[in-house]
Amino acid sequence: MKILSILTIIVSFSQCGSNKFVKNPSFKVEQAVYNNWVGGQPGVTGTKLEIHLKNAASINFDSLYFQNKITKVEVIQLDDKLQLIGHFSTSKKQKNDIILDADPAKEFQNTPPNLEKFPFDLKDNEAILSYKKGKKTVFFKILNIKEVQAVAFPSANRK
Question: Which domain covers residue 87, as residue numbers?
Answer without folding.
Answer: 23-92+117-153
